[in-house]
């Protein structure tokens, strides 16, 4: 039974992948090419706009209603879109691998970009679906708040130290704590996105 279910979800994801590539290829390829260049800055910039022109664009233009008429639940759409866009980001890394000076830098950049992407993906959807904030405005709000909070405090001054820098998706002062924070953000986004379908 589990094998049948696995095959069913795989076929669903394959169909979803083809549909999204067909509809969004022209837009996403621009940011995909940008992410081919080494460096976490290029990757995070590209990932930021991939979120805007993927799931947030679907929410903004009310394309999700059409997707739910197909054999996709809101839960499936959330994870399929996350998997689809994550594959694009990872693919850009592997194509750009020859340009990295060391494999260690390659792995660090992958972790940095995926933590940033996961946190912003989850938080922007949580704000959009949970608090009814404009989809495009939500991710720029996340960026603004993250940038401001992570800039506060001073390094080396104990009473002015800002612990938020440890989990900030932008700063990632501690990669493990940033990863945990990103997982929490994804969970919050998933809950908000799934519950909206029951409203």
UniProtKB/TrEMBL annotation:
<feature type="transmembrane region" description="Helical">
    <location>
        <begin position="77"/>
        <end position="100"/>
    </location>
</feature>
<feature type="transmembrane region" description="Helical">
    <location>
        <begin position="173"/>
        <end position="193"/>
    </location>
</feature>
<feature type="transmembrane region" description="Helical">
    <location>
        <begin position="106"/>
        <end position="123"/>
    </location>
</feature>
<protein>
    <recommendedName>
        <fullName>ABC-2 family transporter protein</fullName>
    </recommendedName>
</protein>
<feature type="transmembrane region" description="Helical">
    <location>
        <begin position="28"/>
        <end position="56"/>
    </location>
</feature>
<keyword id="KW-0472">Membrane</keyword>
<keyword id="KW-1133">Transmembrane helix</keyword>
<keyword id="KW-0812">Transmembrane</keyword>
């Amino acid at each position: 039974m589990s094998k049948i279910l696995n095959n069913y979800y795989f076929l669903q994801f394959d169909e979803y992948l083809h549909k999204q590539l067909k509809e969004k290829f022209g837009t996403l390829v621009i940011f995909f090419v940008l992410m081919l260049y080494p460096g976490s800055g290029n990757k995070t910039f590209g990932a930021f706009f991939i979120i805007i022109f993927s799931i947030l664009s679907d929410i903004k233009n009310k394309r999700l209603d059409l997707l739910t008429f197909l054999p996709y639940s809101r839960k499936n759409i959330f994870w399929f879109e996350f998997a689809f866009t994550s594959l694009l980001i990872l693919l850009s890394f592997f194509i750009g691998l020859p340009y990295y000076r060391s494999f260690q830098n390659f792995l660090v950049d992958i972790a940095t970009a995926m933590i940033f992407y996961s946190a912003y993906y989850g938080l922007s959807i949580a704000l959009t679906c949970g608090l009814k904030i404009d989809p495009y405005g939500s991710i720029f709000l996340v960026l603004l708040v993250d940038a401001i909070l992570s800039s506060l405090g001073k390094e080396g001054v104990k009473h002015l130290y800002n612990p938020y820098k440890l989990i900030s998706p932008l700063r990632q002062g501690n990669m493990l704590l940033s990863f945990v924070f990103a997982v929490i953000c994804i969970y919050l986004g998933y809950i908000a996105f799934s519950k909206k379908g029951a409203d």
